[in-house]
UniProtKB/TrEMBL annotation, chains A, B:
Record-listed E.C. numbers: 2.7.1.100
Recorded family membership: Belongs to the methylthioribose kinase family.
UniProt KW keywords: ATP-binding, Kinase, Nucleotide-binding, Transferase
Domain called Aminoglycoside phosphotransferase: residue spans: 46-219
Signal peptide: none
Lineage: Eukaryota, Viridiplantae, Streptophyta, Embryophyta, Tracheophyta
EC category: transferase
Record GO biological process: methionine biosynthetic process
The protein's name: S-methyl-5-thioribose kinase
One term of GO molecular function: S-methyl-5-thioribose kinase activity
Keyword Transferase: yes
Keyword presence, Thylakoid: no
């Protein structure tokens, strides 16, 4: 490639992650981000910026410059901008990246090697374990919330046995289940967008983990964006239409992901994969049953992880600008409480939801 | 240690595993067996033979010689010998080895490193995937059964959609879930016994996998031994009392494992582990709920994997001497069919079983 024609940018990794100087991190995370960008870029070039150069010693990635008007999706959601292709694009990214390492397209041999390599990204996995699955459920110096308004709500999270019982299961799955090479931090701040472009960035938390963690991160952060909208309404724009667009986007994201993921499964079912051998899964009824069971479990994992990601953004260490940018603390707390209560219900009762439409209805019920 | 005082034996690994020359295997499995013997021996020295020397280049393990009257447990079960301490010993081995790598006693950092290393044992994992979770459910040159008696039964296994649906879930768990450093082949041929000694050998299939695979392998093979007893009865010994002893041993194995595993959990709950932080799981009711949920899931995994291990021993490539030593083919087939039908039911309906006592009753119902 003729680099003189390329608009490039250098991403230089420092010792500290976004959480600040209390969280020194190995620069090795640059390596895991670089190889994940390359792997995911190979699988889904349309939605992952190209890596031109990686210098491990320098912890430096030379990659495509995402030119204006690309902005961070979260900022677009706060500004009330509709992205008509977002669901189409992000579902394409998730279906391609998550399905490829599913055993129906990849040989266990190469997968096991890759799993082994990504076990090296242990520090960032441990950070996630702490800030997502542990700190919000205990007294921690790192936790904060809109006080004093949510003091009782934060305490209620720490004292909810049923909630903590379910979180234990999700944490075990996060730590133990090497299902696919996941992005590991797929919230709306890890996606850059324009009206017709969607680019997934910052996979420094990538490892072999449960697929539902990626899908849940994205869906959960859209739900957070939804509950924050009332805080961004003004006399010129009550945000009602925009809230409807967010709900449609949540609905389309899951349904398109489901459609594309299962289509890739069908496409590869006679391929080199070993999980669902055509000689065993040899009749249409069985193939349907297997897919339905698999996607139902993935859906419930998605809701569980998505809810956990919502909770940690309200009573944990790192909050989201969707809420933080609401200046009236009392009003912000009302929005956050609605999101928190919904997330607690979703995490505890996720297995009762048959499909994404049920989730949309539940959000609407909470909100009206 | 003064080696002149030690009765030792050398285990030299060849290119082929028990399945014969159709299955060439890397000698590297000697390395995984050696480090697993050392690790499990460190955790449970009473029931794992000591390794004196390992030569990786030679694929040679110098280890304790298990002197007579030690014999392979499977042969003792065929001979109708009772081992009064078997359940006590094997439950101790399983509780100590499986709990130690559970996150409540081991730091994720070291666990991740170990998981990465054992990903190298990919060939033997793939062999298990094929012979346990795939071949019995499809037409395979390797499958065989007591023909023609079980021709219809073998075909029924290959055409049972519900069974294959459940096997897919177990195979995914086997491939994806790095829960503990498991033995990987804990059937009654991997245990040597005397009246008062129980020694676990041959962990060449060891890797980070689901705990239920080990517990299930042992329990499933005891159930096979039970269903084979009628084939070993003679006018002098109808084996009725011995069948009762096997059922008592199954019952005690699970109940003692449950008791010891949860006791180790309690012992380490304030320790260095990170899965169940005492600041989160901070009240007796919650601690009980978490343990009950965890052990219930482990019990159902155990029944599922145990049933899968039974099925593969009747219609798959490698059979067990318990049945093979029954010379009358028609009579052997009757015993095998009872075991196969029970295993199919157990695999499909495992979640309905509340405890091991339900399993014992179900075995007795089938049998009378």
């Amino acid at each position: 490639m003729d680099t003189s024609l390329i608009a490039g940018v250098c991403r230089l990794f420092h010792t500290y992650v976004a959480l600040g100087e209390s969280w020194p991190m190995t620069k090795e995370r640059a390596y895991f981000e670089a190889i994940t960008l390359k792997e995911h870029g190979h699988l889904c070039p349309a939605h992952v910026p190209e890596v031109y150069h990686f210098d491990r010693a320098m912890s430096l990635i030379g990659m495509r410059y995402l030119e204006p008007p690309h902005i961070i999706l979260r900022k677009g959601l706060i500004a009330g901008i509709e992205y008509p292709l977002l669901a189409e694009h992000i579902s394409e990214y998730m279906a391609r990246t998550l399905s490829s390492h599913h055993f129906f397209t990849v040989q266990p041999r190469s997968t096991k090697r890759a799993v082994a390599e990504f076990c090296g990204n242990v520090e960032l996995c441990r950070l996630t374990e702490q800030v997502v699955f542990s700190d919000p459920y205990k007294v921690s110096q790192y936790n904060h919330w809109t006080s004093p308004y949510l003091d009782g709500d934060a305490e209620a999270v720490r004292e909810d046995n049923t909630l903590k019982l379910e979180v234990a299961e999700l944490k075990s799955m996060f730590c133990e289940r090497a299902q696919a090479l996941i992005h590991g931090d797929l919230h709306t701040g890890s996606v850059m967008v324009t009206h017709d472009s969607t680019q997934v960035i910052d996979p420094e938390f990538a490892f072999y983990g449960p697929m539902g963690y990626d899908v849940g991160a994205f869906v959960g952060n859209l739900i957070l964006a939804f509950f924050a909208q009332d805080g961004h309404a003004d006399p010129q724009n009550d945000r009602k239409a925009y809230k409807d667009w967010i709900l449609r986007t949540i609905d389309e994201t899951w349904n398109l992901f489901h459609k594309k993921f299962t289509a890739l499964w069908d496409k590869h079912k006679d391929g080199s994969g070993e999980a669902y051998l055509p000689e065993i899964y040899n009749n249409p009824q069985l193939q349907l049953l297997v897919k339905q069971k698999y996607m139902k479990d993935l859906f419930h994992d998605t809701l569980g992880f998505g809810a956990a990601k919502m909770i940690r953004r309200i009573v944990g260490v790192a909050h989201v600008e969707d809420f933080e940018s609401i200046t009236d603390a009392g009003y912000r707390a009302d929005c956050e409480r609605r999101a928190l209560d919904f997330a607690k219900m979703l995490l505890k009762e996720r297995r009762k939801f048959q499909g994404i439409a049920d989730v949309i209805s539940a959000i609407q019920k909470v909100h009206t």
